[in-house]
Amino acid sequence: MIQQQTLDFLSDLVDNNNREWFMDNKVRYDQARQNVIDFTTELIKLMHKVDPALSPELDAKKCVMRIYRDVRFSKNKTPYKNNFGISLPTTGTKLGGAEYYFQIQPGGKSFIAGGYWMPDAAHLKAIRQEIDYNGHDLTNVIDDAAFVKLFGDFRAQDKLKTLPRDYTADHEHIELLKLKSFIALHHIKDKDILSAKAAENVAALCSKICPLNVFLRNAIL
């Protein structure tokens, strides 16, 4: 389970996002990161049962993302992220593609997400083709009442302002074809993050995302 000390470290980091403070609190960071790694180990076992495409052999340490920010091309020069990110790929061990993502961030900002964020050109073309051919398979997933209650309107994501190449405005699924990403996201309260059943609850949420990931994987295989 995620410990209160882990959230406390992240909260304090927001107010002290500098190298000097971080190095003075390196022990706290190491403890928080290990807590997240242990949680991830438990989550991987549960997630393989939810989605067999997610390998039970995933290395939890590699699934926990670096806390160090790449500030080279950012106006925000703070050196550290104010969250722990857990990325769980479903195509081997390489990150990217259709996957599950869990972000731990205090203040009610934690969330579970799944799908495919900003596919490259080849994958985006393949996903649009799959929507063109089998769009009803996707709408059966995203328009299900339980899915909408958890993740909202799937079509209300970043999308093209113009029509995608090779598709017309009267296409039955044009709003899906215009999407740039294919993500389902659900925010999680701090008290639920700290629950002894947090990993089970996250896996249960991912079970609702799984059919979306299956559709996306089938599109790009």
UniProtKB/TrEMBL annotation:
<dbReference type="Pfam" id="PF09365">
    <property type="entry name" value="DUF2461"/>
</dbReference>
<dbReference type="InterPro" id="IPR015996">
    <property type="entry name" value="UCP028451"/>
</dbReference>
<protein>
    <submittedName>
        <fullName>DUF2461 domain-containing protein</fullName>
    </submittedName>
</protein>
<dbReference type="InterPro" id="IPR012808">
    <property type="entry name" value="CHP02453"/>
</dbReference>
